[in-house]
Design brief:
heterodimer, A: 5-stranded parallel β-sheet, 5 strands, B: alpha+beta, 5-stranded antiparallel β-sheet, 5-stranded mixed β-sheet, 16 strands, 20% strand
């Protein structure tokens, strides 16, 4: 069984480092990114299941980053982390493909719980994809071979 | 004191308000007066002229008739017959039947000898050939004398007619009773003071004047009548006593007698004076009405304008204040948002500290001690206080956020407690208890949650302020009740035991910009906006209050379908 890998994206360095320590202590495999650009860069190299993304960041903000992630890595689950209590900005994120949202200040346990939920969703999705591919395989091995030529993600 | 900006306008309005009615008013009166006086003067003068004319004709015809009477005797009787007293007597008798004005009758021969006489005096035998009247009658064939005293010392005048008959010239002469003639001339009555009289060429009264002027006395006003003229002359002049009269004069008897008809000017133009008085009275009255009315209306208009100006200024101020408030609200939500970031970090740090502490304890590196307990307690406090901060920022963000009006069904049972939480802190600080009585069968209402929230928060805040004003920081209470009402409505009641609202102010509480708070403290918009929101939701809002007892605001909203 695959273990969950999450990435924390926020412009607050201290938040990143402390939360990383907490997550590590809780046995969760996590990486951090200080900006949207950095997050996208890291997603290129690392296999990440869930991204926890701050909405308000200098440079590329959360919503933009979310769109970009969904464009390039559609299977990555994203949880928006908003300092704004408005449901609206969260709804914006959900419309753009975010899985869920968290309101600052959030409890670490809540964060982990939501991340796990998202991860489960991701697993289910992967399962479905796997099943679909299996069916394809049964029908046309050639097509599967063709599919295999393309990168998985 | 600043210059009144309406001083100029006030003058213009006042001037136009006075002039616009006054000009036609005065014009109408003036023109009316002019034409009225003109026509009245013409009428008065025409009527006095007509009287003079008629009167002259009457006098002249009287004289001519008497002359004709004598001529008839001359033509029908012989000199010899008339020289006989009995015959003369008979003739006089018939003459008197003709006119009682005849006093006596005398017959004269060509030498002026008084041949026969019938009358009250013994005059026969006298010779008159040198008397001016005799000369005149011989020369002209007839003669009418002025009034004179003669031998008799009684004013009288005579009419004499001459005739040449069978080569003999003889003259018949009659004396006219001045009393009858006098009455004839005097009988003219015009108004109170109108009178008529005759003067001779010298100005001696030939008939009495009613207002004083006995026979044979000279009229001191004679020079005013001027020389002999044709036709009728009218003029206004003062008499010897200085009284102004309207005169009409005409000469008769070939310029030897002057008929004067006169009336006191005041009497003649009495209607004119009355009209003048009336016009003056109306003018004064009109002015007395127009001027104060204009003053009143002007000050009314100016006051209105000043009030409007004041209200405009106030509105401007309120708008600026409202704008500033909105700005502050936005800033506040910005701050709240920013504060959430450090709060997040503190929370994470707390979690880390807690975790490390737990690890340390687990590994036995920390022994249970009083210090450790205190440390843990302190760390718990950090979490508690961070959560409290988070609640505050949430509340600010919840309230200050900007969004489109989104209507949905609102469940009052959960909604009201949420709103109460927002003000609970403020109320608690001032020792105010908020009691909620929310019916279980409470129905939903439909509307914008944020707006309804604003209404309730506003009412609760007002209640808190009112309670603080009365009780200070203890003893205050606020009740918020909710339950179904008739006509498919729900009712939310917010009641307090605060300072209440005076009955005078109670009427105005929902008026925009009405506030009892000091300048800068309240916009006076709160309740009017609340009213607008509730109205828009199809509901109604009412208030009941008693000073120093408390106020109750009642909201009724239709139940959502």
């Amino acid at each position: 069984m695959e273990t969950m890998k999450i990435m924390l994206v926020d412009d607050e360095e201290r938040f990143l480092s402390t939360t990383l320590k907490l997550l590590t202590k809780k046995g969760i495999d996590a990486v951090t990114a200080a900006s949207g650009a950095e997050a996208l860069e890291k997603l290129n190299h690392k296999h990440i299941h869930v991204v926890i993304l701050d909405v308000k960041m200098p440079g590329m903000d959360g919503n933009e980053t979310l769109k970009e992630i969904k464009k390039r890595f559609p299977l990555v689950e994203v949880i928006m982390l908003t300092g704004h209590a408005t449901v609206e900005s969260a709804i914006d994120g959900l419309k753009s493909g975010a899985t869920d949202y968290l309101m600052k200040p959030t409890e670490i346990d809540e964060l982990i719980a939501k991340a796990r939920e998202a991860f489960q969703k991701r697993l289910q999705l992967e399962e479905k994809i796997h099943m679909a591919q299996s069916r394809k395989y049964m029908k046309s091995p050639r097509e599967i071979l063709k599919e295999a030529e393309k990168p998985e993600r | 004191m600043k210059q009144n900006p309406y001083a100029g306008l006030k003058k213009v309005i006042l001037a136009s308000m006075n002039l616009v009615p006054l000009v036609p008013f005065v014009s109408v009166l003036g023109i009316g007066y002019y034409y009225f006086t003109d026509s009245l003067e013409n009428n008065t003068i025409a009527s006095i002229q007509r009287i003079v004319h008629d009167h002259r004709q009457m006098i002249e015809s009287f004289l001519m008739e008497r002359k004709a009477d004598l001529e008839f005797i001359l033509n029908t009787s012989a000199f010899e017959d008339l020289s006989r007293p009995d015959k003369l007597n008979r003739t006089f008798g018939s003459l008197q039947k003709e006119s009682s004005a005849f006093v006596d009758l005398g017959i004269f021969d060509e030498n002026g000898l008084h041949v026969a006489y019938h009358g009250p005096y013994q005059l026969s035998g006298k010779v008159y050939d040198q008397a001016p009247w005799f000369k005149a009658v011989v020369k002209n064939g007839f003669y009418i004398s002025d009034v004179f005293l003669g031998y008799r010392e009684v004013p009288h005048f005579v009419i004499a007619v001459a005739k040449i008959n069978q080569g003999r010239r003889w003259v018949i002469r009659a004396t006219i009773d001045t009393q009858i003639f006098n009455d004839l001339v005097k009988k003219v009555h015009i108004g109170k003071t109108g009178e008529a009289y005759l003067l001779d060429a010298e100005g001696v009264f030939q008939t009495e004047r009613r207002s004083g002027g006995p026979l044979m006395r000279k009229d001191p006003d004679r020079p005013k009548y001027g020389p002999v003229h044709d036709g009728i002359k009218t003029f206004i002049d003062s008499d010897a006593h200085g009284k102004p009269f309207l005169y009409a004069t005409t000469w008769l008897k070939d310029g030897s007698w002057l008929l004067v008809v006169r009336q006191e000017k005041a009497d003649a133009f009495k209607a004119l004076h009355q009209a003048s008085y009336l016009i003056v009275f109306i003018s004064v009255l009109g002015g007395a009405i127009i001027v104060p009315v204009a003053l009143f209306l002007t000050s009314l208009i100016i006051r209105r304008m000043e009030r409007m100006d004041y209200e405009k200024d106030l509105l401007g101020e309120q708008l600026i204040r409202a704008g500033r408030l909105a700005e502050i609200g936005e800033m506040a939500s910005g701050f709240a948002h920013e504060i959430n970031n450090p709060l997040q970090i503190i929370k994470s740090e707390y979690a880390l500290v807690e975790m490390i502490l737990a690890d340390l304890k687990e590994r036995g590196e920390l022994k249970q001690s009083e210090d450790l307990a205190e440390l843990e307690d302190s760390i718990d406090q950090i979490k508690l206080q961070v959560d409290r901060c988070a609640d505050i920022t949430q509340a600010i963000l919840q309230f200050g956020r900007k969004e489109e009006s989104v209507t949905k069904d609102i469940e009052l049972r959960t909604f009201i407690p949420e709103v109460v939480v927002m003000v609970a802190n403020k109320a608690g600080v001032h020792g105010i208890t908020i009691k909620q009585e929310i019916s279980d069968q409470n129905s939903d209402v439909h509307g914008d949650l944020r707006h309804l929230q604003q209404v309730l928060v506003n009412l609760l805040n007002n209640a808190i302020d009112a309670v603080i004003a009365r009780h200070g920081s203890s003893g205050g209470a606020i009740w918020i009740e909710s339950g179904p009402a008739e006509n498919g409505q729900v009712e939310i009641k917010i009641r307090d035991n605060g300072s209440g609202i005076s009955s005078e102010n109670l009427k105005k509480v929902f008026t925009p910009f009405f506030t009892t708070k000091p300048v800068g403290k309240g916009t006076g918009l709160g309740l009017s906006v609340c009213y607008g929101i509730i109205d828009k939701m199809g509901g109604g809002m009412a208030v009941a209050s008693q000073e120093n007892v408390g106020s109750t605001f009642t909201i009724r909203l239709p139940v959502a379908k």
